[in-house]
Amino acid sequence: MELTSNEAKERYAALAANMSRTVIGLDFDGVLSPIVDDPAQAHIHPDAHDVLVPLATKALAVAVITGRPARQALALGGLDEIGAEIAGEGRELYLFGQYGNERWSSTQRRIVSPRPPAGLARFLRELPQLIRSADVTGAYIEEKGLAVAVHTRQLDDPAAAQERLIPVLEKAAAQHDLSLEPGRAVVEVRAGGMHKGLVVDYLAEQLEAGGFLFAGDDLGDLEAFHAVADLRTRGLDTLLVCSASDEQSALVELADVVVPGPDGVLDLLRQLTADAP
Ligand SMILES: O=P(O)(O)OC[C@H]1O[C@H](O[C@H]2O[C@H](CO)[C@@H](O)[C@H](O)[C@H]2O)[C@H](O)[C@@H](O)[C@@H]1O
């Protein structure tokens, strides 16, 4: 683990000492689950269970905060089982799906979800034509109920395909009052108004947190990084962890700790559990 400054070392030590009042916020894809070509096969890291359960016994709460639909994150993450063990220890696992639009927790064990945004059905009808006009035929379409993600990872040149896709989808999304969420070899179209930063604020307030760690890897985690940085200015102990890849570097300069992908995230969380009183 690379602590990026002396300040980062101090932040790590303060957060570890204050773990019982700290919320651990974790992104799913690229942080708890290694990136794979097929989004339906992105299972959680095999060590995650053995790291998250002991971590949860020391932290105030653990929250998975993801762009995935909550139902899918539960299945790919085995989060129902992990949550049951955490609940058995008298602690809570939270899951926020679709960037905070869907909510689940290990004591409630029920997904609360809003209706899909009004323009999504019309957007979906136009999507095949939009894909042709962006010249990304063969892109994988992931329908998410509240949103749709168009993946370019399976194409010959994913980055170039994504570049062609963004302006086309952005224009159409705006016509249907929808927002664009670009990510690693993916462009997502969803309702605006909700993001991971609002989830961070919600958890910090509801749980009266004294500390907040957030680990992310992609553009959809930026708002959470900014929200945690804001909590720092309000006196909370914080640690920002970037799960590094050669696909996205936007979080690196904001992070206190840069780790090599999900293996590195789990090593850090293991260390933090050991260092906490
Ligand atoms: O907020 P996250 O947990 O990071 O979810 C963001 C999106 O992740 C998924 O796509 C990413 O992971 C796939 C599987 O490894 C990979 O094939 C793809 O290229 C990545 O962008 C997911 O499919 C999306 O629905 C999520 O919104």
Automatic annotation (TrEMBL):
Pathway: Glycan biosynthesis; trehalose biosynthesis. Pfam families: Trehalose_PPase. It is an enzyme of class 3 (hydrolase). Coiled coil: none annotated. InterPro entries: HAD-like_sf, HAD_sf, OTSB-like, Trehalose_PPase. It catalyses: alpha,alpha-trehalose 6-phosphate + H2O = alpha,alpha-trehalose + phosphate. Its cofactor is Mg(2+). Its EC number is 3.1.3.12. It comes from the Bacteria. Keywords: Hydrolase, Magnesium, Metal-binding. The keyword Magnesium applies. PANTHER family: TREHALOSE 6-PHOSPHATE PHOSPHATASE (PTHR43768). Removes the phosphate from trehalose 6-phosphate to produce free trehalose. Belongs to the trehalose phosphatase family. This is Trehalose 6-phosphate phosphatase.
